[in-house]
Amino acid sequence: MSLQSLKGSCLCKKVKYEITGELTDVLNCHCSMCRKLHASAFRTRAKIATKDWHTLAGAEYIKLYESSKGEHKSFCSECGSSLFTKFDSAPELLGFPLGTLDDDPKVKATRHVYVGSKAPWYEISDSLPQQIEFD
């Protein structure tokens, strides 16, 4: 957990943002949606308070996609970088993938979730707890 000011940007640098708050519940998600969205074996993400996200540049490039009912993934419409997830059921929180940070968040994942659907070609080799589902 970390209370700090962190800056980040998308791949093309059109969207720039700052997070001024705590990163909580940092985890590695192995669900098929995260794998497809990030074109990777898993997504490392945290929760942040919606009020702590500040778009510094490129707000017009941020687009939303409803990936499942009430869950909206945001991305840069120019380069496709994933930025955050909004939840209709919890508008005060955002799901935040750490991959677009330019600064070191000084946090690490504490667990793996949805390991029941992890990529078959990826071997989890650390000692973090593994959950078949997400609670």
Automatic annotation (TrEMBL):
Keywords: Lyase, Metal-binding, Zinc
Pfam family, one: GFA
An example molecular function term from Gene Ontology annotations: metal ion binding
InterPro entries in alphabetical order: CENP-V/GFA (IPR006913), Mss4-like_sf (IPR011057)
The keyword Zinc is assigned to this record: yes
Domain CENP-V/GFA: 6-123
PANTHER family: CENP-V_GFA DOMAIN-CONTAINING PROTEIN-RELATED (PTHR33337:SF40), GFA DOMAIN-CONTAINING PROTEIN (PTHR33337)
Family membership noted in the UniProt record: Belongs to the Gfa family.
Name of the featured protein: Glutathione-dependent formaldehyde-activating GFA
